[in-house]
Amino acid sequence: MAVRSNAGSLALPSGIKGRGEYVRLVFEEAGVPYTDVGVTGGMVSIIDFCWKGGNTGFPVRAPPAIRRGDFVLCGTPVVQAYLGREFGLMPADPRAAAHVEQVLAVVTDGVAEGRLAFHPKDFYASHKTQVEESKPYVKQYGEQRLPKYMQHWEDILRKNEADGEQGFLIGNSLTVADLAVYHYMAAAQQHYRAYFDAVEAPLAKAHQARIAARPRIAAYLSSGRCQPWDTDSMM
Ligand SMILES: N[C@@H](CCC(=O)N[C@@H](CS)C(=O)NCC(=O)O)C(=O)O
């Protein structure tokens, strides 16, 4: 199964960045064209593909999902690692690759916690129905948890520098871990702005700026393909 040379197809939540952004960023950095089904077909096509029989490949639990031919895959960190291997954004060394997967898992934890804070009363209901109840939890995540995640990116970048590499989380070239941490920080900046701004993490914040300035990422971020932030919650 090679996605490398041709268009991939993505079933992504439509109209917002969401978790789909992690996957879009991988396609965009790799320069591989894709069809963003949520944008072209709207929510109806996502629901049809994921849950109403439109998918004849491996069952999808929830978007984001990728499809090429009859190969279908969901689970954001799994998709990132898979595409990373396909597109040359994963280290060949198994230990370095495991560290990339560690970072993807930590990002997943960080986002899950950050999202939970916006939905303390009912995890499945809109944040707008629980704004007051969320306030102490948003404060707690912003003051206590966000700094820990930021410090973790800082530690990883410092370790890589101490190992003689610069500019990336792991090794001497960009991996899907860099893109995932970039999106984690961008989302934290969007949804926890005051707390994010208060965190001292110069290496991590410089990393975020570096990734945003990469030619393909910068072109994507200013393109019509780039979706707006969710106004309801984190992811
Ligand atoms: N663990 C999954 C979570 C996927 C997820 O929660 N997707 C959201 C949209 S971003 C969804 O549509 N969920 C519907 C559901 O879980 O039934 C991942 O990382 O991809």
From TrEMBL:
PANTHER family: GLUTATHIONE S-TRANSFERASE (PTHR11571:SF263)
Record-given protein name: GST C-terminal domain-containing protein
Residues of the GST N-terminal domain: 7-91
Any single biological process term in GO: glutathione metabolic process
Organism of this sequence: Gonium pectorale (Green alga)
Xref: Pfam families: GST_C_3
Span of domain GST C-terminal: 93-232
Superkingdom, natural source: Eukaryota
Record InterPro entries: Glutathione-S-Trfase_C-like (IPR010987), Glutathione-S-Trfase_C_sf (IPR036282), Glutathione_S-Trfase (IPR040079), Glutathione_S-Trfase_N (IPR004045), GST_C (IPR004046), GST_superfamily (IPR050213), Thioredoxin-like_sf (IPR036249)
GO molecular function, one term: glutathione transferase activity
